[in-house]
Amino acid sequence: MAQHEHVRVAVIGSGFGGLGAAVRLRREGITDFVILERAGSVGGTWRDNSYPGCACDVPSHLYSFSFAPNPDWPRTFSGQEHIRAYLEHVADTFGLRPHLRLNHEVTMMRWDGDELHWVIESANGTTVVADVVVSATGPLSDPKMPDIPGLADFPGKVFHSARWDHDADLTGKRVAMIGTGASAIQIVPALQPKAARLTLFQRTPPWVMPRMDRAISGAERWLHRTLPFTGTARRGLLWGIRELQVSAFTKHPDQLGLVERIAKSNMARSIKDPALRAKLTPSYRIGCKRILLSSAYYPALAQPNVDVVASGLSEVRGSTVVASDGTEAEVDAIVLGTGFHVTDMPIADRVVGAEGVTLAESWKGGMRALRGASAAGFPNWMTIIGPNTGLGNSSMILMIEAQLNYMADYLRQLDVLGGRAALDARPSAVGAWNRRVQDRMRRTVWNTGGCTSWYLDANGRNTTVWPGTTAEFRRATRTVDISEYQVVRVPAQRDAKKAVAEEVAG
User: Fold this and answer.
1) Fewer CB within 10 Å, N- or C-terminus of the chain?
2) Which CATH number fits domain 4-142+341-496: 3.50.50.60, 3.40.50.2300, 1.10.540.10, 3.30.1330.10?
3) Could you tell me the pTM of the whole model?
């Protein structure tokens, strides 16, 4: 790659969002783009999360691109290795390999207002200049490491679930699992049979629904390969069921009582000890925090080599882990299921906009972006899976594809404008969109359910989830409303001087 490669579009990240953006660019006839990926392969969160038991909690036929159906999913809920293989397949099928720049971690991207382009610096010393940036780093990409006194001096293995140490053999070891989120409930059943003792530190119990997973038969796969419309119909049915569920989350949380009873029955089947059941029963409305799926979590917790500590980890003294309630345990290894930097994404510190401020500084009062994509003061910069585009009950691929529609029309609008131009979201438009989203958020279970979750930022605002159906979001992002943007051009006098200089040089 040239030291200062200039492209029309730079895509940051090669997970679902980045690869989806790249495919859409090629389908729009745009081939002048690169995909900057910090790791040595594609896959995003499905490359990084390789812990035992890692799998998706969205049905396989819905957790895939509509333009790249996979008739050969092996299970109704696919494992990490199958999803990662699918993303590799997408990269190959759509000819994305020549556009990939692996091991190119972006350290800084700065808007050059004189030249109307972004200057992107990578950790390996290369620089890419791009007219447009599509940031698809994702909210679940940077692990959150807890600040626990004594943790750094722990003599055994310590690692985050998203950075699993595959050289660490935990067989016969005493293991502490910190956290009870989506990763932890998959890790616990995988570790329990191996560990001599497994101690689970739980700050807040999750609601856990049964996971209706099964192998997809050869006949089903043959049918989807032979008659592709059957796979499309299956995807449509899965989507429709989830769309019908949205109003319970966003408008009528009181309707979720039946779902709570199903979750309690799931627990009761395996947890016979009343004291343990009390520890594991949430005190908030189901849906307030992410609803988890597992038919193996509770059976694992009921095993004699598992201890559940209903308190968070507060201190580490040598090989002793100490909970906030004073409970102590001697352990050989600590696994951190402590989540990610979602509302304070590190990439925001590396984006410097038109006014010389970083995106993190601009978002100090909370993340906000026009239609989940464009931030005021950051021309020709878009994000995939931006503020308030997350989902509580369906597939993020649906939201990603909606944002790709918006990205495509954004680029068409730039073509229509002609010449050297940029689009910068108007602060008034960003504010109006954000107010509408937050007004709708007030009634949702995420805001009224009585919990504290990673959906909320440090100010208690829900800047993560979309308070509506995926169909609504798709309509809202079908086209770009040019009135919501300021058109930025190079000052005429500067352009004239440059033209004269080039004529003289020529």
Assistant:
1) C
2) 3.50.50.60
3) 0.94
